[in-house]
Amino acid sequence: MQQAIAQVKADFGDEAVILHTRRYRSGLLGLLGRARVEVIAAAEGERSLAVLRQKELERARAATLEALQSLQEEVRSLKRMLGDQPAAGARMPQGVARALARLREQDIPEDECQALLEPLAEGGDDAEDERWVWEQLAARLTAAVPTVPPWDFARKPVIAPLVGPTGVGKTTTIAKLAANFAMLDKRSVGLVTVDTYRIAAVEQLRAYANIMGLDLAVAYTPDELRRAVDAMADRDLILIDTAGRSQHHPMHMAELRAFLEALKEPEVHLVVSATTRLADVQQVVERFRATGFQRLIVTKLDETRAYGSLYMLPRWAGVPLAYLTTGQSVPDDIEVADGEQVARLILGDAP
């Protein structure tokens, strides 16, 4: 009701008089529909009519702009399609054509496919050879995918928060990293979680910490997070689990930034699931850019057969891949990212 009345004031000014209000439900007999609010108001005739006309004009302009943007996108799409067609009498070499089909299957955007393959299409007879094209393309993909080795711990402690959308596997990934560095690499590791929103999230990480004999701190505020990290200053590595945040929710993102700002020189890792649609991956990158992430982790590679995000994600983000995960097993199912591995995943087995 407050929103409806505020809309009346916004449309007709503070002088508008509320004549009648009611709440009701739409739908079958008013039982199954949404709750609705009706407000009847009056304002001085000439002014209210002018305001209403102005509002209608603004809405019409917005609708026209949206339609124009949609039309422009259709035109761009058509141009891309036309640009993909070979010139009359031209024939795409067989090896290149097969490679192009594979890249498209991997959800790599068309302009990126063309950029990768154009130099190979000029390879003469070699471009007909599928194995030659595969080897050349694998080399180009390997060189184009930036990766980073594990931490060297020259500066300790390494403070590594993991951020990302909900459901990408941050907690399990932290458990895998902790197990590998604490149990296999014999590093001193501390765990902190600020994921106090998700049911049983703290208990899940606590169970892992108990099995590995690691300390776990729970922080509800940025100040508590700062104190928890300070208490672990003698560790080699401090892994921080954050709550999954929707990139569409500004308040959630602001809360996440407040926690990260409480840390001194954190190495923030953005975690993205390989099952995420490529269009959504780009949006995730842009919305989480405010966290200042420096490395990428891609999870759930075992749940998809399209790996184009492994190529596009670091290009959009401008930072390297650090780790890839391939299942739920702890401490297994995690690997240091490698450009050659990414190329093999995208291209499949050599012909």
Can you identify the CATH class of the largest domain?
A: Alpha Beta
Output the strand order for the largest sheet: 5-4-6-3-7-8-9-10
Unreliably modeled segments: none
Q: End-to-end distance, in Å?
A: 66 Å
Strand and helix order? HEEHHHHEHEHEHEHEHEHEEH
Q: Number of folding domains?
A: 3
Radius of gyration, in Å, reads 27 Å
Instruction: Assign a percent range to the helix content.
Output: 40-55%
Question: What's the CATH superfamily of the largest domain, by name?
Answer: P-loop containing nucleotide triphosphate hydrolases
Q: What is the structural class? A: alpha/beta
Quick overview of this protein structure:
This protein has 351 residues and is α/β, with parallel strands linked by helices.
Topology, pairings included?
Blueprint: H1 2-12, E1 17-25, E2 35-42, H2 45-84, H3 94-105, H4 110-121, H5 130-144, E3 158-163, H6 170-184, E4 189-193, H7 201-212, E5 216-218, H8 222-231, E6 237-241, H9 250-261, E7 269-273, H10 278-288, E8 295-299, H11 308-317, E9 321-325, E10 334-336, H12 339-347
Parallel strand pairs: 3-6, 3-7, 4-5, 4-6, 7-8, 8-9
Antiparallel strand pairs: 1-2, 9-10
Provide an overview of this structure.
- This protein has 351 residues and is α/β, with parallel strands linked by helices.
- The protein folds into three domains: 42 residues, no CATH class; 54 residues; 190 residues, P-loop containing nucleotide triphosphate hydrolases (Rossmann fold).
- It contains twelve helices and ten strands.
- An eight-stranded mixed beta sheet has the order 5-4-6-3-7-8-9-10, with helices on both faces. The protein has a two-stranded antiparallel sheet with strand order 1-2.
- The chain is flat, with a radius of gyration of 27 Å.
